Amino acid sequence: MRSYQQELIDKDPDALVARVVRMSIPVDPPQPLLPDGRVDSVGAYYAYRDHFWDHTDLTDPRIVRTPVFANKVEEYFSKLVPQVPDTINALTDRLVARLGDDRELFRYVVHHVTYTYETSDIMGMDAVFVHMALTYYCPRPEGKSRAWWMTDEKLDKLCERATKMAPLVIGAQAMPLILPDTSEARWVASHPLPEEFVVLCFWDPHCGHCKKELPELHRIYKERLQGLNAEVYAVAKATDSVLFADWKEFIREKDLDWVNVGLTHHVYEEAKKDPSKYIPRYTTLASLNYADTYDVFSTPKVFVLDKDRRIVGKQLSPEQIADLIERLWKRDHEGDGAGH
Length: 340
What we know:
Layout: H1 2-11, H2 16-24, H3 41-50, H4 67-80, H5 85-97, H6 103-118, H7 126-137, H8 152-165, E1 178-180, E2 187-189, E3 197-203, H9 208-225, E4 230-238, H10 241-254, E5 259-264, H11 265-273, H12 285-288, H13 290-293, E6 301-305, E7 311-314, H14 318-333
């Protein structure tokens, strides 16, 4: 079989059929060995990954319409590229740089990666979408986008979304918040809280899902989070008199004894008339506009911050929040004699 394939390739190497046949032949790079003579399995993986495209002419625009190329792209990103955002981004950039000037090849690879990770349910993969959007879609300083297939309207929406998501990816420094508590007399800042971990929880007193989720989060808070040196900074929508009253009632009813703050009715109305009444004396514009700052278009919305107030988790269930913080706590305290 292999000799027949080689005959086809040798007969007319530039023919599309020859390119497709060659592309379908798996690469077989030299196997790296360990000092004891055994095959280095880790080195073998890197060798295979680095030589994966050796049989593919990434400058030939004809291959983009072949199932073999589509399958290779799928295999590369699903089986060979570690599912870590920084690694995905780096290997994507490396592959795109090899595509030459062909518009269709560029479109295929860029769209495949963007769509795959834009629609991923795995926490943190939105960082790949943001990277792809800002690198390949959004206009450069000269005003041109490389995504030639996109309409201006779709491009504007995509870039606006990516720009809003960029500060909220895993590993990003979280924006500090300073908001009033239920008394409207005390302003509480999120970042100077003494606890090692902070859970930002954005909610709405009239949101049915919030009413179910917050008591569960509070149970986990009392049973696990407090023992892991974690605090919950719960930000409520309280922008009218009914929301404000229902917010305070829910806190009392469920005995939510964590940090309760919100954009309260009085502050909201006064800030609309004159923001300088509160900024910068009490708070910041990012705090008063917390819904935009943290892209809170639905509730509840949760972010987990570490001791450096970087985002280490988001949109997790209460149990998942505790599991993540426990894992990080053990990592940070391992070997220091601390116990839990």
